[in-house]
Design a protein that fits this description.
By secondary structure, the chain is mostly helical. The protein has two domains: 46 residues, Arc Repressor Mutant, subunit A (Orthogonal Bundle); 133 residues, Tetracycline Repressor, domain 2, CATH 1.10.357. It has ten helices and no strands.
Amino acid sequence: MGRKSLKETRQKEIVIAFYKVAKKEGIENASIARVADVLDVNPSLVMHYFKTKDDLLQALVDFNLEKYLSIYSVSGKVDSKEKLLQIIDNLFSRKWHRLFDDGVYYSCYSFIYRNKRFKNEFKELHDSLHQNFVVTLKDANEAGVIHIENFEQTAKLVFSIVDGAYYYLGMVDDEKEIESLSQCYKTHVLALLGIGN
């Protein structure tokens, strides 16, 4: 494996700084100038790598995807019920929030209604997550852990539950209620997959 180029390293530093500013001050207040302040560099250096705030937002979506894909991290193929349950647990855990701030995520999401390019980027992010789950389902099916026919449709249904759960749970403060609802959603997903907990 080759070393990362200085350009890739610098771009990642800028995106992480942009994320920190957006998390602290809100995406609408995150600017190239504020990112430059955090990095203690001239704004022209940030603009050398990202010409506009939209370019930074697009890179932030890619950064988000990279973080979210770690949810599927298990050792080897999903060839046991335990590994599949681990991934399902991860999907309904607070790991998502620890990987990427919900406030920044939903602020970014709101841009899909105003920017076609951004809408396409967000759709690609979600399609990537779905496709990774399709691979998970195929591995589990091949190993005899589950027995389903339509992997694509099942993945979409599971993510409809996951996305709806996160949207709603973002409004709930009580940890016991969050745990109870998460368990309820997870039970429905397991039933959809034809496995018990």
